[in-house]
């Protein structure tokens, strides 16, 4: 599980993996919320990563305010490390929660599913043309 807190004194958190690691890493952000001590001000959290041309790009993912939206569910917003979470506006504290999955490349291969045999495919009804 991933968890970090962004505050006025700690404005960013970078999640990175070992470059020599031969695995695929997925980081999923599930929730962003204001925690105890937050002021009623806008707190904007952005994700900083790299695009295909290897240029740094920052994308806002949450704009929280204690009086109207103190919590935001991001439904496991998937990111590719390395990635930095930055408190672009506000003083927080803002808590980020998510998970990190490591997929070893040799585990990523799969065997064909033999559950459907040719007999099962023949049992399907034929597709009929639509009536006009």
UniProtKB/TrEMBL annotation:
GO CC terms in record: cytoplasm; nucleolus; nucleoplasm
Domain Nucleoplasmin core, residue spans: 2-101
Chain positions covered by the region annotation Disordered: 109-132
Domain of life: Eukaryota
Keyword Acetylation set for record: yes
Bias type Acidic residues, positions: 109-124
Keywords: Acetylation, Chaperone, Methylation, Nucleus, Phosphoprotein
Gene Ontology MF: a single term: histone binding
InterPro entries for the chain: Nucleoplasmin, Nucleoplasmin_core_dom, Nucleoplasmin_core_dom_sf
Entry-linked Gene3D superfamilies: Nucleoplasmin core domain (2.60.120.340)
Subcellular location: Nucleus, Nucleolus
BP-aspect Gene Ontology terms: chromatin remodeling
Subunit structure: Interacts with NPM (via N-terminus). Forms a pentamer with NPM at a ratio 4:1 (NPM3/NPM). Two pentamers form a decamer.
Family, per entry: Belongs to the nucleoplasmin family.
PANTHER family recorded: NUCLEOPLASMIN, NUCLEOPLASMIN-3
Function text: Plays a role in the regulation of diverse cellular processes such as ribosome biogenesis, chromatin remodeling or protein chaperoning. Modulates the histone chaperone function and the RNA-binding activity of nucleolar phosphoprotein B23/NPM. Efficiently mediates chromatin remodeling when included in a pentamer containing NPM3 and NPM.
Name this protein carries in UniProt: Nucleoplasmin-3
Highest classification ranks of the organism: Eukaryota, Metazoa, Chordata, Craniata, Vertebrata
Gene from which the chain derives: Npm3
């Amino acid at each position: 599980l991933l968890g970090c807190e962004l505050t006025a004194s700690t404005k960013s958190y970078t999640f990175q993996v070992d470059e020599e690691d031969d695995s695929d890493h997925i980081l999923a952000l599930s929730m962003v919320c204001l925690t105890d001590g937050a002021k009623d001000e806008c707190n904007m959290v952005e994700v900083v990563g790299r695009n295909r041309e290897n240029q740094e790009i920052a994308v806002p993912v949450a704009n929280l305010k204690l009086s109207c939206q103190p919590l935001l569910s991001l439904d496991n917003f998937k990111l590719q490390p390395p990635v930095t979470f930055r408190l672009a506006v506000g003083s927080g504290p803002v808590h980020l929660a998510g998970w990190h999955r490591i997929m070893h490349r040799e585990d990523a291969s799969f065997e064909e599913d033999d559950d459907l045999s040719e007999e099962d495919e023949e049992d399907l009804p034929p597709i009929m043309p639509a009536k006009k």
